[in-house]
Amino acid sequence: MELSTASKRVVVFDYGFGNVRSAERALARAGAAVEITRDFDKAMNADGLLVPGVGAFASCMHGLKEARGDWIVDRRLAGGRPVMGICVGMQILFARGIEHGVETQGLDEWPGSVEPLQADIVPHMGWNTVEPPAGSELFAGLDADARFYFVHSYAVHDWSMEVANPAMREPLVTWSTHGKPFVAAVENGALWATQFHPEKSGDAGAQLLNNWIGTL
């Protein structure tokens, strides 16, 4: 499947947690000029910043802070510069993560807690469908039965975010279900994120990344 989009500079933020090579290949396939780096200036000035993440919430937060990634994400978003999180890179955007009874503060871009999946089989590993809301740009052009690849044991089950300014657009929240429904993706201005791995999701994931790059 060949996709084309105007070449944009995307940095895959390399803070030690995430399959950066898979992300690099998928973004390049979608038409971006990609660099894997933790260089502060390059991460700040790229058209788009992708924050991957695998493993434990607390470890990812520690690694992100060590690389000044928390400051980079905050400053980019303050300037309306696009950021996308994947898997634990999405989870750390929430207020807190709770693993094995231990609470770790997240980036607090969105309220909510990342908690253990409420399902008979954990981890949730494999292909699943999602339910995007009307008007989603992230899932534009994708069939309703498109499937994406998930690997996770934790998720956000409850979404509650009030937008104080009525002129601002409400975040668009996409859901999936494994046991209990959980947040599978969020589109919120310059900040987008997915719980699943688009870089491992075949043509559907490639189209989704193409959609993101097209907004940069």
From TrEMBL:
Residues of the Glutamine amidotransferase domain: 11-211
EC number annotated for this UniProt entry: 4.3.2.10, 3.5.1.2
UniProt entry tagged with the keyword Magnesium: no
Protein's name according to its UniProt entry: Imidazole glycerol phosphate synthase subunit HisH
Taxonomic path: Bacteria, Bacillati, Actinomycetota, Actinomycetes, Kitasatosporales
Compartment list: Cytoplasm
Reaction catalysed by this enzyme: L-glutamine + H2O = L-glutamate + NH4(+); 5-[(5-phospho-1-deoxy-D-ribulos-1-ylimino)methylamino]-1-(5-phospho-beta-D-ribosyl)imidazole-4-carboxamide + L-glutamine = D-erythro-1-(imidazol-4-yl)glycerol 3-phosphate + 5-amino-1-(5-phospho-beta-D-ribosyl)imidazole-4-carboxamide + L-glutamate + H(+)
Keywords of the record: Amino-acid biosynthesis, Cytoplasm, Glutamine amidotransferase, Histidine biosynthesis, Hydrolase, Lyase
Superkingdom: Bacteria
GO molecular function terms attached to this record: glutaminase activity; imidazoleglycerol-phosphate synthase activity; lyase activity
Pathway where this protein functions: Amino-acid biosynthesis; L-histidine biosynthesis; L-histidine from 5-phospho-alpha-D-ribose 1-diphosphate: step 5/9
Its biological purpose: IGPS catalyzes the conversion of PRFAR and glutamine to IGP, AICAR and glutamate. The HisH subunit catalyzes the hydrolysis of glutamine to glutamate and ammonia as part of the synthesis of IGP and AICAR. The resulting ammonia molecule is channeled to the active site of HisF.
A biological process from GO: L-histidine biosynthetic process
Any one cellular-component term (Gene Ontology): cytoplasm
Organism: Streptomyces sporangiiformans
PROSITE patterns: GATASE_TYPE_1 (PS51273)
Cross-referenced InterPro entries: Class_I_gatase-like, GATASE, Imidazole-glycPsynth_HisH
Pfam families reported for this sequence: GATase (PF00117)
Subunit details: Heterodimer of HisH and HisF.
Residues annotated as catalytic: C87, H197, E199
Main localization category: cytoplasm
CDD domains, per database record: GATase1_IGP_Synthase
